[in-house]
Amino acid sequence: MTGSAFSSLVAAVLVVVSTVLAPTASADVNVVLPPQKQTMKMGDGTVVTISRTGERATINPSMGGTPLHRNAWVSAKYRVDISKPTRYLLVRPGYLVGCQVNLGGGRVGGRDGSLRLSDGTIDDYDLYGGARNTLSLGPGEVARFFVYDEEMPDLFGADSHQRGLISAGEKSVRASYVNSQIGLRGCAGYAQARSWLLVIVETEFAQESFNFYGRPFSLG
Q1: Mode of pairing for the β-strands spanning 159-162 and 150-153
Q2: What one-character-per-residue DSSP string does 106-169 give?
Q3: Is pLDDT above 90 for 104?
Q4: Which of 44, 147, 51, 119 is nearest to 87 (CA)?
Q5: What domains are defined for the chain?
Q6: CA distances, 4 to each of 15, 17, 41, 202 (Å)
Q7: pLDDT digits (tens, 9 = 90+) for 115-155
Q8: Which residues contact 113 (CB under 8 A, 6 or more apart)?
Q9: What pTM, to 2 d.p., does this model score?
């Protein structure tokens, strides 16, 4: 075999190999977030202590396979301690997810133009978890994603969703989740997420809501 023929054969084999071999998959990114604890006082003197431990996120390539898709698996443990028995206690864990928005500030852009991180309200533009664990966001948009989504009938038999833990008479409540999925699509720029816990406490003489935010982390 001549040198030119041998070179042509090698080139042909290289073309076949490069066609058959699949591209190397991107490795998962594991994010471990620090534990946090915060103590607050209600108007009647009731002390509310909230702590978060074991928070982590695994960011991996989305099944969408494009730069517009992100996928994360998140886990955390919460504990809420109240100094007095409660008439009503709601513990609702979730995440703020933003596209081309810095979630570390006290106020960020949102679908309504702004989203105050100090409010405890649930607005009509919020997106929820459960079956709807994929968020579609454009530049400058923020959505809230709630981890729990238990479907149950309401008083009239219609479907309703319970997106948190509700108790009465308790002084301590624990909540946890493991590998809850957050899918994000449509975001062409950088994306961030930040854990968020909404706690509503009602005692005999007062009712207040508290927000407990985690550290922002990149979704890529």
Answers
A1: antiparallel
A2: SEE--TTS-EETT-----TT----TT--EEE--TT-EEEEES--EEEE-TTS-EEEE-SEEESS
A3: no
A4: 44
A5: 27-218 (2.60.40.1650)
A6: 17, 20, 84, 85
A7: 444 333 333 333 333 334 677 887 888 888 888 765 555 55
A8: none
A9: 0.72
